[in-house]
Specification:
Blueprint: E1 2-10, E2 13-21, E3 28-34, H1 39-53, E4 62-63, H2 72-81, E5 86-87, H3 97-108, H4 119-137, H5 148-161
Parallel strand pairs: 4-5
Antiparallel strand pairs: 1-2, 2-3
Length: 162
């Protein structure tokens, strides 16, 4: 899983978005939004990803060296679930290229180019973008031009047939 944080501008101030993506299918499996950059933001996204994926022991999110990802609470939660929380080298955006690519896609969407009046409006747009468009419809060349949801369905049906 790849994890990162970006900000969404609103007239009320910035709304921070934390995401966790499944590296296999590029699906957004965990996300959280808040008007702060405290550790709880990334913990909420991690909790959603754990609930959605129930990763096997040793698997977990990969992120940068930001203070939220290096916090004791984040590491403790990873250990409690048996997840291996990993971090890339300092200052290397390529270590979390999957998350950076997701944010580039999100920022390229017409809805993301606007500045929302309220944080609530930004929350709804962010949810609609990831759950309503990105996971079910955004095609990826690395996934044989399938969306993350379609790629997982195809893989699941092939695994069941085998």
């Amino acid at each position: 899983m790849g994890a990162d944080i970006t900000d969404l501008p609103t007239w009320q101030g910035v709304l921070d978005l934390a995401v966790v993506l499944d590296v296999f299918s590029r699906r957004v499996v965990g996300w959280a939004m808040a008007d702060h950059l405290r550790t709880e933001l990334v913990l909420d996204a991690l909790e959603m990803a754990i609930w959605n994926r129930r990763p096997a022991p040793g698997l977990g999110p990969h992120s940068d060296h930001g203070c939220r990802a290096t916090s004791r609470a984040f590491g403790r939660r990873g250990r409690q679930t048996g997840s291996a929380v990993s971090m890339g080298s300092v200052g290397d955006c390529y270590d979390k290229a999957l998350a950076e690519s997701f944010f580039a896609t999100l920022e390229g969407e017409p809805i993301a180019c606007s500045r929302w009046r309220t944080r609530s409006a930004a929350r709804m747009a962010g949810f609609g973008s990831s759950e309503g468009c990105y996971n079910p419809r955004r095609r990826h060349s690395a996934l044989a031009y399938l969306s993350p949801a379609a790629y997982e369905r195809r893989w699941s049906s092939q695994s069941t047939a085998a």
